[in-house]
Each structure stands twice: as structure tokens, then as C-alpha cells.
Design brief:
Elements lengths: L17 H22 L7 H6 L6 H12 L2 H14 L5 H24 L4 H9 L3 H34 L3 H19 L1 H30 L1 H9 L38 H11 L1 H5 L2 H8 L4 H14 L3 H15 L1 H4 L4 H8 L9 H9 L2 H38 L5 H28 L2 H28 L5 H24 L13 H4 L3 H22 L38 H11 L2 E6 L4 E6 L16 E6 L2 E6 L3 E2 L3 H10 L12 H11 L4 H24 L2
Antiparallel strand pairs: 1-2, 1-5, 2-3, 3-4
Helix pairs in contact: 1-8, 1-9, 1-19, 3-9, 3-13, 3-14, 3-19, 4-7, 4-15, 5-11, 5-14, 5-28, 6-7, 7-8, 7-18, 7-19, 7-20, 7-21, 8-9, 8-19, 8-20, 9-10, 9-15, 9-19, 11-24, 14-28, 15-18, 19-20, 21-22, 21-24, 22-24
């Protein structure tokens, strides 16, 4: 493909039409306007505000952010590509997520809120005590985010930009990363959630536009059903074992439920993998849970999961159908079945299904609408990147950095979180050459596969932690570790013995070829459950009074009086409620000033007040000084406010005043959390009715496309 040309079409793909350019400008201006507006929110100047958006978010931005965090560029390309090859079965991953979203809102989230956690690893530390589970899961989560989620998002976005638009790969990705970094570093979770909302609107407008135009082109669903079955490439190969022609559409392409053992998506295995194995992603994944923790109440959090559930019905129309339409219109490219042809089309001898979506954009849309689809892809990439950056920095700051520096101040935590985003950006940029030189189909496949191998044991451990109070730290830790090692063995074998193309003989060992990865995930779950249960029963139990607010069955149990910090044994809960309140009341009186000799020190106000006092006519105020352990006093005449550039730096970075914010005592914190999970009878019934409606719609769709 020459620079600036479409995929095998010779048509120019650069943004030369005024409508395309205007659409992109409107997109960037809209996103940046929302980002800058959200930067004015005062909640970003505290740890809770930066990492949990001040817990004042309403249902609709939470629901849109849940959808945006999940639907990235890899979905637009990956689901469309899989749909072009396999048909409808892949939609089970999206539709079964609706069930898991309801599990999150109704079963898991009340416990998470009462526990007072910031991160998923922190919950494990509170639930089981000790630190090894927390540190281990933190490291695994960061590695998974970096080498699977982040790398796949970057590759998918780069593939679309390069092949559909004609932009230079590195310039395009650098622009997207820069946008994501800007408002993630400065604004925190509130900015990410609010910008996600507008990204979803842009994404849906662009994707629905392409789907409608595509369906009109092929004559609607009936026309697509007929033409898809005849979408056969001109150059094909024969399978050496069965002599079947490669590249033919699957006979069961329009069926979701397929042969439970021999299909590409076995019905039983896929159902188990998407519900039980997927429970980790939707109910115990920092990327998802963090958005619901930002809700101002449990009712708003449930409303967010309901909205996200309704939106999850759409991927079949905006991703799977476009992939099938692309194969119907361009079978020689999207469905190429000869390695030489595939290499000429997309540079990948394995297959070109991943170009189904960008090929449809290039071949079907007029120049005036390409900018809309570029904005759609930009929205998918940026929303995913910001969600990943924010979740990763929360885990690093709250779970790892606080262990390195237990007495770190709020300002230090805020600065650390922002700097870690920059580190993630640098690492993601370093991954771009790796993604560009690797085979796209293999990267996508193995990245998603390793998530299943790591996530299934974690899912089993969280089910035990949440619903079986007898489970202890030893059972949870060793059950998860051993099960993940079992998955690692299979992952290594998958990497060594790669799945053969249709025209190649399958020379893999039976252990690899005969056991579908989804059934192997089930084996992992069983191993994790058995080890977790047996080891827990053979070792000492955790007293029930230490499980207050930490399991589904004990979420309403009140902690022991005198220590209102929820948790088995945590660093934060080792002191009494009175000691905690005393420390916090002292901290709220600390202010930072600048001496005339340029030194920065901390003061505790003793007399007077700075309220409503003009800088040029300030009252003489005596202040107690604590510097290097020595107490003294100083007059307000000897200190002055920070310089203008330092003032603006603190405002832009969101660290000004974070040490002055009064924090509630542990008792007040606990009462606040209990108030958050309280629901009025009307809204509780309203949410339950919507949950029933969404399940009825899901059952109907499964029956229609069975």
C-alpha cells in the first residue's frame, strides 16, 4: 500500500475534504473543552477527588464511562474482524457482560463501598490481612494493563489510523497519547469520566452512521444474511486433512449457540468463560470498579451499571454487523485465504480479518464522513487510554507507593500519581515499534488469551472472598497462584504451538489442540476453588468480627467500637478511632507558607485568622512554627504568599490546598459509607425493574439469534 492510499483500492485516504477536517477540529475542541471545564472542579485537589472523583458523580457519566472504558479501538477492529470470519457467536462476550454489570451493582459494589477501599488490591488486604495478596495482585494488574490492554489499544488504533486514514503511525499515536495524558494527569478520575461521556456520544454517532450506510448497501439484514453466505475469495486453498475449501463463510455464522465441543466458539465453554471467567473483568477489575466507586450513592452506581448494560446491546450493530458487511463487500481482502494474497493486502500471512472495519470505512464512506469515523476511532482510543492510565496510577500510588512511603502526604500522593501517568506514557510509546513490527492478528489473539489465563483464577478467588467468609488468606493466595501457574503453562504451549492456518496441518499435541482455551479456563477455575477451599479449611479461620463490611453476608455488620477502620489487619487500622481523629484534626490546621528568605516550612495557626484579610493590610498574627522538630513562633509579617508562578503551578497540578482539607474521623467515614449504600424504596424498585427489563431483552435477543 502506498502512502496515503486505501487498502488495496488506490483511493486517497488523507483528510483533504473540508468536512473531514471540520469534524476532527470539532472533536478535539469538544473533548478539550470538557477536559478544561472539569479541571476547574475542586475535587481534583485531594486524593479522594483525584482517584475517586470526590464520590459525587451521577449515574449517566458513570454508565457512559463504564462503556467507554470497555469499548476501545480493539473492540472496533477485533469484534468486526472476528465477526467477518466467524459470525455472531463473539457477541456473547458483550451480552453476557450485561449480567456481570448487574452482579457488580447489586452484589459486589455495596461491599466495596462499605470497605472504604480505593483499589481492588486494597480490598484484598482488608479482607484477608497481610500484604502479599495486595502487592502481588497490584503487580499483576499493572503488567496486564501495560502488556495486554494498553498494547492492544495502541496497536488497534495505529492500524486504523495507518490503513484507513493514511496518517503516519507514530505521529497519529503520539497525538492521541498526548491528549489522553493531558487531562488524565491534570484532572484525575472526574475529568476522565466526564470526557468519556462525550467520547461515547461521538463514538456511537460515527459507528451507527457506518452501520446504517453499510446495511443499506447490502439490502438490510436479510440481504446481509444472503450475501454473507456467498462472500468467498477468488483465491482459496484446501485443508490438507479434510480437503475442505479454506475461506468459506461458516455455516453456523448466524447462530450464537454452536457445537459445544468442535466449534470455534463452543456454546458451553463460551458461556462459562464469559460469565464466570469474565466476572473478574467486570466485578473485580480496577479499570471498571473505580468508575462505580465515584458515584455519589449506591443508587447512582446501579444506574450507571444499568445504562452501561443497555449500551452493551449495541456492539452487534456497530461492530459485528460492520465486520460481516465488510467481508460481503470485499471478500478478496477481508476474507483472503491464501498467505501470499494476505501478505499483499495487509502484510500478515495469517489473515486480514483485522482490517475489516477500516476497509469498510475506506471503501464505503464518502470523503465527507471519514473524519467522523476518525473521530469515532479517536474517541475509542483516547477513552481507553485515559481509563487505563487513571486505573494504573491509582493502583501504583495507593497500593505500592504507600507501602514504600507509609507516611506520604496527600500532596506527595497526588504528585506521585501524576508522575506515574507520565511513566506509563513513556512505556506505551516504547511499545509502538513492537506493535508495528509484530503480526497484528497474533498480538490481538495472545493478548486477549493471557487475560483469560490470569483472570479466571482471580475470579475464583474473588467469589470465595466475597461469598464465603471461611476463606482465609492462605487459601486465596495459593489457590490463585497455583491456578495462574497452570494457565501460564498453557499460555507458553499456545505460544510454542501456534494455531495452524486453514491450509496447514495441525501438528499440535492433543493437550493443546483438543482442549479449547475456554474449557482450560474452566479447569483453572476448578483448581482455584478446590485449593482455596481445602487450604482454608485446613488453616485457621478469620474471626467474624474482623470481617465486618468485607463480605456480602457481613456488609451490614458494624465494626468493633473504638476502631471503625474496616479490615482484618491493615496498616491504617492499627490505631483507635480517637487516635485517628486526633491526628486528622491536627493535620487540618497545617498550612504552607513561604518565608521571605525563600524557605518553605509548615505552620500551625495559633492566633488570629487569615479570612477576609487583605494582603497589604494583614493583621499581625502569631503562628507556632514546627521546623526540624523545634517549636517556636513567628509573626505573619515574616511570611508572604507564594509567587505567582508557584501559585499557578499548584493550581494547574491540582495540589493547592490539599493539605488544608478537613478529613472526617474513621467513625464519620464509616457512617458516610453506610449512608451511601442506603436506598429509598422508590429508586430501589426503579432500579430492580430496569434490571428485570434488561434481562428480558437479553433473553429475547438470545432467542432470536440462537
Amino acid at each position: 500500500m502506498t502512502d496515503g492510499e486505501g487498502i488495496g483500492t488506490g483511493r486517497p485516504t488523507g483528510l483533504t475534504h473540508w468536512a473531514d477536517i471540520l469534524t476532527i477540529i470539532v472533536y478535539f475542541v469538544s473533548v478539550m473543552a470538557v477536559a478544561i471545564w472539569s479541571l476547574c472542579r475542586p475535587t481534583r485537589k485531594s486524593v479522594r477527588g483525584y482517584f475517586l472523583a470526590g464520590r459525587d458523580m451521577t449515574w449517566w457519566p458513570i454508565g457512559m464511562s463504564l462503556f467507554a472504558s470497555n469499548i476501545g479501538s480493539e473492540h472496533l477492529l477485533g469484534l468486526a474482524g472476528t465477526g467477518s470470519v466467524s459470525g455472531l457467536a463473539v457477541i456473547m462476550f458483550e451480552w453476557n457482560a450485561i449480567i456481570l454489570l448487574l452482579f457488580l451493582g447489586w452484589l459486589f459494589l455495596p461491599v466495596y463501598i462499605v470497605s472504604g477501599m480505593y483499589t481492588i488490591p486494597e480490598y484484598l488486604s482488608k479482607r484477608f490481612g497481610g500484604q502479599r495478596l495486595r502487592i502481588y495482585l497490584s503487580c499483576v494488574s499493572l503488567i496486564t494493563m501495560l502488556f495486554t490492554n494498553l498494547s492492544v489499544d495502541l496497536y488497534s488504533g495505529a492500524l486504523f489510523i495507518q490503513q484507513a486514514i493514511g496518517w503516519d503511525l507514530y505521529v497519529g499515536v503520539a497525538v492521541l497519547i498526548s491528549i489522553a495524558t493531558f487531562y488524565t494527569v491534570l484532572g484525575g478520575l472526574s475529568t476522565v469520566i466526564l470526557t468519556d461521556a462525550i467520547q461515547v456520544v461521538i463514538m456511537l454517532i460515527g459507528a451507527l452512521t457506518l452501520s446504517v450506510i453499510g446495511l443499506i448497501k447490502v439490502g438490510g439484514l436479510e440481504g446481509l444474511r444472503h450475501q454473507y453466505s456467498q462472500a468467498i475469495p477468488n483465491v482459496t486453498r484446501l485443508n490438507p486433512v479434510t480437503n475442505a475449501t479454506c475461506g468459506l463463510p461458516r455455516e453456523d455464522a448466524w447462530h450464537i449457540f454452536r457445537d459445544p465441543f468442535n466449534a470455534d466458539y463452543p456454546s458451553i465453554g463460551t458461556m462459562i468463560r464469559t460469565i464466570i471467567g469474565g466476572l473478574w473483568y467486570w466485578c473485580a477489575n480496577q479499570l471498571i470498579v473505580q468508575r462505580t466507586l465515584a458515584a455519589k450513592s449506591l443508587t447512582h452506581a446501579k444506574g450507571g451499571t444499568i445504562l452501561a448494560g443497555y449500551l452493551k446491546f449495541l456492539p452487534i450493530a456497530i461492530m459485528v454487523f460492520p465486520g460481516m458487511i465488510s467481508r460481503t463487500l470485499y471478500p478478496d481482502e477481508v476474507a483472503c485465504a491464501d498467505p501470499d494474497v494476505c501478505e499483499r493486502v495487509c502484510g500478515n500471512r495469517v489473515g486480514c480479518s483485522n482490517i475489516a472495519y477500516p476497509r469498510l470505512v475506506v471503501g464505503l464512506l464518502p470523503p465527507g464522513l471519514r473524519g467522523l469515523l476518525l473521530a469515532c476511532m479517536c474517541s475509542a482510543v483516547v477513552s481507553s487510554l485515559t481509563s487505563l492510565f487513571n486505573s494504573a496510577t491509582t493502583i501504583f500510588t495507593m497500593d505500592l507507593w504507600r507501602k514504600i512511603r507509609p507516611k506520604s502526604s496527600e500532596v506527595e500522593l497526588l504528585i506521585t500519581g501524576r508522575l506515574f501517568v507520565v511513566v506509563m506514557v513513556v512505556l506505551s510509546i516504547l511499545l509502538i515499534p513492537l506493535m508495528a513490527s509484530a503480526e497484528g492478528g497474533q498480538v490481538f489473539k495472545y493478548a486477549t488469551t493471557i487475560t483469560g489465563y490470569l483472570g479466571s483464577p482471580t475470579c475464583a478467588m474473588f467469589i470465595l472472598a466475597m461469598f464465603w467468609p471461611r476463606c482465609n488468606e492462605k487459601g486465596a493466595f495459593w489457590g490463585m497462584i497455583v491456578s495462574q501457574l497452570v494457565g501460564l503453562v498453557r499460555f507458553i504451549l499456545d505460544f510454542i504451538y501456534r494455531s495452524p492456518a486453514c491450509w496447514e496441518r495441525d501438528e499440535r499435541p492433543d493437550f493443546v489442540s483438543k482442549i479449547h482455551p475456554y474449557y482450560y479456563n474452566l479447569i483453572q477455575i476448578v483448581v482455584a476453588f478446590l485449593l482455596g477451599i481445602v487450604i482454608s479449611l485446613l488453616t485457621e479461620p478469620i474471626p467474624r468480627e474482623k470481617l465486618s463490611g468485607l463480605t456480602f453476608w457481613t456488609k451490614n455488620d458494624r465494626p468493633k467500637k473504638g476502631n471503625m477502620n474496616v479490615g482484618v489487619t491493615t496498616d491504617d487500622s492499627s490505631q483507635s478511632d480517637e487516635e485517628t481523629a486526633s491526628e486528622e484534626s491536627t493535620e487540618t490546621e497545617d498550612i504552607k507558607c513561604q518565608l521571605k528568605n525563600g524557605e518553605i516550612t509548615e505552620y500551625t495557626i495559633a492566633y488570629g485568622s487569615t479570612d477576609n484579610t487583605d494582603d497589604d493590610d494583614r493583621k499581625d498574627m502569631q503562628v507556632k512554627v514546627i521546623e526540624n522538630g523545634t517549636r517556636g513562633s513567628i509573626s505573619s509579617k515574616d511570611w508572604e504568599k507564594p509567587s505567582l508562578w508557584k501559585h499557578w503551578l499548584s493550581e494547574v497540578c491540582g495540589i493547592g490546598g490539599s493539605d488544608n482539607v478537613k478529613r472526617p474521623s474513621a467513625t464519620e467515614e464509616y457512617e458516610l459509607r453506610m449512608k451511601i449504600i442506603q436506598e429509598t424504596s422508590f429508586w430501589k424498585m426503579f432500579m430492580n425493574i430496569n434490571a428485570i427489563i434488561i434481562m428480558v431483552v437479553l433473553i429475547f435477543l438470545y432467542g432470536f439469534f440462537h
